[in-house]
Every structure is written in C-alpha cells, then in structure tokens.
Amino acid sequence: MNPRRRASPPRRALRAIDPVTEFLQTEAGGGFALFAGSVVALLWVNIFGVAGYESVWHTQLDIGIGSLSIDEDLGHWINDGLMTLFFFLISLEIKREIVHGDLRHPRQAALPIIAAAGGVILPVIIFLALTAGTDATGGWGIPMATDAAFAIAALAILGERVGVGAKLFLVTIAVVDDVAAILVIAIAYTSDLSLPWLAAAIGLLGVVVAMQRLGFERIFPYVVVGVAVWICTLESGVHATIAGVALAFLTPARPVGGRNVIEDLEEKIHPWTSFLVLPLFALANAGVVLGGDALSKGDGAQIAIGVALALIVGKLVGISGATALALRLKLGVLPKGVDLRSVFGIAALGGIGFTVSLFIASLSFDEPLLVDSAKIGILAGSVVSAAVGVAILAPGGRHPSRK
After folding, report:
1. What's the pTM?
2. 24-54+74-189+239-402 falls under which CATH superfamily?
3. φ, ψ of residue 22 in degrees (nearest 5)
C-alpha cells in the first residue's frame, strides 16, 4: 500500500457531508442567478425606461374556468404563486434543521439563535429610530432577513479562504432569520381576514394529515390538496406564501416508504427555486430607477437611509454583538474553525437582505415611490454589506478546514 495515498473518508461521513455540500453549491449558483436577474431588471428600467417594465409585470393573467378562476397580474402570480414554492423550500430546510440538524442540539442551536435574534432586533430598532414620526415606520420588517443565496454566493467568491464551519454558521443564522420573517409576514401583513376561507384552508391541512395517517405515499394527491390550500389561503387574506410554510411543516421528517421525504423534496425543488423562481422574482421586483423621484418625495429618503443603515450597521453590530455576549455568558459555542474575524465577516454578510427584504417591501407600502425608496435602500445596504463582509473574510490563505 502506498504510504502517501490518503485514506478515503468513511462512507457514512460522505453521506452526511454531501447533502450540505450540495446545498451550499446550489445556494451559491442560485445567488449568482439571483444577481443576474437583479442586474437585468436594473438595466431594463434605467436604460429602456420604467413604462415597458411595469407594463409587462402588470399584464393580467386569468387562470381557471369561469367563476373558479383567479385573475392577477403577472407580478402577483410570481410574488404570491411562485414564491410559495420558495417559502415551502425554506420551511422544509427549517424543519430539517430542527429535527435532524444543528438546531436539534440546544447548546449548538443557542448561539446561532441568539446571533440571529440580535441581527433581527437591532435593524428594526435602527429603522424605527430613523423613520420615527413618519408613515415610513410600516416598513420595519424590511431589514430583518438575511438572503442565504446571495450571502453564500459572496462566500463562494472567497473560495477556500472561508471554513466550512463559517458557512454553516451563516446558513443557520439565515434559517432562524427566515423563521422571524415568516412570522412577520403571517402576522403583520395579513389584512381583511376572511374566516370562512381561513377555516377551509385549515380543514384542507387536516386532510393532508389524514392522508398521511392513511398511508398515501404518491405525491400527486398532496399536490392537488396543496394547490387547494394555497387558493383558500390567498382568498382568506393571509398572505398566500404562508400556505407553503404550513404544508412544509406537515411534511414527514421520518422516512416514508423507505425514502427521506424532506431531503427528496429539497433535492427536486431546490434547483427550480434557485434558477427559476428567485431570478424571476428579482427580475419582477428589483427594477427601480436609480436617482429618480423616489428619494426626493415624501418620506422616500428616510426609508432608503433607514433600510440601508439598518442592514449595514444593524446586522453587523447586532449579530456580532449578540454572539460576543452569548459567548461571554457561556450560552453557546462557536462552530469548529470559526474565529472572531469570521464572526464579524458573517455578521456583515447578514446585511444582504435582498430577496425577503424586497418581498416585505412590496407588502409594506401601497405607494409605488415608497416601495422604490425601500428597494434603493435594500440594494445599497446589500451591496455595501457584501463588500464589507468579503473585505473582512478575504485576508489569509486556505482555511485549515478546507484541506
């Protein structure tokens, strides 16, 4: 046997690592696709004008038959329809982390949960402080979330300078952020609640549970009931994407028929959300006229500055400060290979709040100029946060954990 030849990793270790590696690679590729969609949207609006852009996304699309049809514009079909698949996926990831991942271990879960809480609370405080006394305070939820796809794409630029532990710490923080964002969307952005439709949605979720108890294993019946849940949720006044969240949390975490349902669904859905849903969402929502009237009218400037500073300062100080406090109080431990410099870099990258921030911005304001102001703040805050995070993490050679 050649003594220089390295022993192969145990098969069990490979099975444990491969899903994580595949997840990070898909997220990184999806981040670049998301970036491409955003750039196209910005070029479209700023070179060819906003009129053509808006006319495309305001095109009415009627799906259904007669009185059973749903009539929405193309932008709403993406935000309320396709994005349900995105929220279904991230909720599957949340459930997997809670049942099988790091979040099932209290000591391992404590630190990213505390860090994420700091990165949620401080940005909200900063935004409210900068917009106090204006109608802009309704956008307080905009700077809460971290865009995992964009953040991991930023880490991908650094290659092997960043350890695996840092990437997983960032993903776990993003997962906890997603929980907070989902709760905000479900509670704060629900209007004109229709109890009969809500009762119908809940009843159909009960049907899903009954199907599981009766041993239904084929996916098609669940898809049919799932679409019905989405329709009832849409009509109830609760944001339609919450249907995806509810269905994900009802998905079995244990093997069914010899297959791991959550991992199978993630494997099938992840490429579609990363390379179709999110780029289309960016294309439909990131188009904003840079230097237009959005910052000069009403509360536009305050919204943009509030969102940008909440993302840049709030996430950096909130995540790193909460992490340092938790470590000092011995409430958790850093992942292996993660030092304080990595924590600051991860905290800065947490300010990339692109996808969910844009989503909440569209729910926060009815006035288009205010939405555009929020978009400018999101773009500025995300770009600066990415630059700061990369600058912090870039020094140094190959990370020991990547050898």
Report:
1. 0.83
2. Na+/H+ antiporter like domain (1.20.1530.10)
3. -60, -40
